[in-house]
Each structure stands twice: as C-alpha cells, then as structure tokens.
Amino acid sequence: MEKTFLMVKPDGVQRNLIGEIVARFEKKGFQLVGAKLMSIPVELAEKHYGEHKERPFFGELVDFITSGPVFAMVWQGENVIATARQMMGSTNPKDAAPGTIRGDFGLTVGKNVIHGSDSPASAEREIGLFFKESELVDYSKLINDWIY
Ligand code: RTP
Ligand code: MG
C-alpha cells in the first residue's frame, strides 16, 4: 500500500488545527499508520529540507520548522501521495484553492500549515527520517467480524 509523510507545521499546531487536518484525511478514507507530536532537532530539519539548502529562504525554513512542536504522520492508501498534495493545495496559500487545507487555513508561504511528500522517493526518504519501522502499525490482521 502506498504511504506518504505528512506533517502539521508549528503554525498549524499552535492554531489547534491537528484535529481538523487529521479528520480530513480520515474522512477521505486514508489510514493513519504512524503519528507523533515532536520538536524537530535542527539537524533533522536540515536533512528533511536538504533539497532547498541553496535557496535564500533555507535558514528561515529551518528556523520556522524547529520553532515549535509539529505533528508528524504517516498515512497510507491508494494514490495517497498525489491525493494528499491535492488536498493540501498550492504551496503559497494565496494561490491555494478554497476547500484545500492551505486554501482554508494558510496565511503566508512560510506559514502554510502542512507539509506533504511530493513523490514516492521523497515519501520513502521522509518516512525513514522521522519514523522507525516499529513505530508504524499494521491493520492487515484486524478482526472485522464484529462489525456489520
Ligand atoms: P512542503 O515541502 O512544505 O510540503 O511544501 P511544498 O512541497 O509545497 O513546497 P517546497 O517547494 O518543497 O518548499 C518547502 C517550503 O518552503 C517554504 N517556501 N518558502 N519564501 C519562499 O519563497 C518560499 N518558498 C517555499 C514553504 O513553507 C514551503 O512549504
Ligand atoms: Mg516540498
């Protein structure tokens, strides 16, 4: 099953949007397979955003993502990587469509509430940076015969 890494950024946590954001992915039908509230160490932030190292906003990006707790998650489902990106909306909230997370809650390009992996390679890399295999759950052995 395809998996992606999603993270409520410090602005989203500070604004009490964890529940709202989790609910959107639950209602869509995706499954949560890992989650933790955490503070990101600077070294992890620099690795996570490594592709932006040469960009002028890299310092601000690392300062912001390490400025307060984040809610890191792994979600699974068919086409979850691309669908989650659509549900998040454009990077800059001013361009994000209403109904998307950034369109509904984002303020500025820096404070855009949520991160999501942008490809299968990024998803694998980012899940590995934030989670151990033992922190991800398995739903395949769930007993379903009590529900009808
Ligand atoms: P993310 O990685 O956070 O899910 O966002 P994204 O793929 O939509 O955007 P990306 O290009 O990967 O940029 C990562 C984050 O950097 C901040 N950013 N600031 N000041 C700027 O011009 C600028 N451009 C990007 C945003 O917070 C973006 O989410
Ligand atoms: Mg990105």
Automatic annotation (TrEMBL):
Modified residues (Phosphothreonine): 91
InterPro entries referenced in this protein's UniProt entry, alphabetically: NDK-like_dom, NDK-like_dom_sf, Nucleoside_diP_kinase, Nucleoside_diP_kinase_AS
A Pfam family it matches: NDK
Name under which the protein is recorded: Nucleoside diphosphate kinase
Occurrences of domain Nucleoside diphosphate kinase-like (ranges): 1-138
Native source organism of the sequence: Neobacillus paridis
Subunit text: Homotetramer.
Subcellular localization(s) per the UniProt record: Cytoplasm
Catalytic activity as recorded in UniProt: a ribonucleoside 5'-diphosphate + ATP = a ribonucleoside 5'-triphosphate + ADP; a 2'-deoxyribonucleoside 5'-diphosphate + ATP = a 2'-deoxyribonucleoside 5'-triphosphate + ADP
Record-listed Phosphoserine modification sites: 122
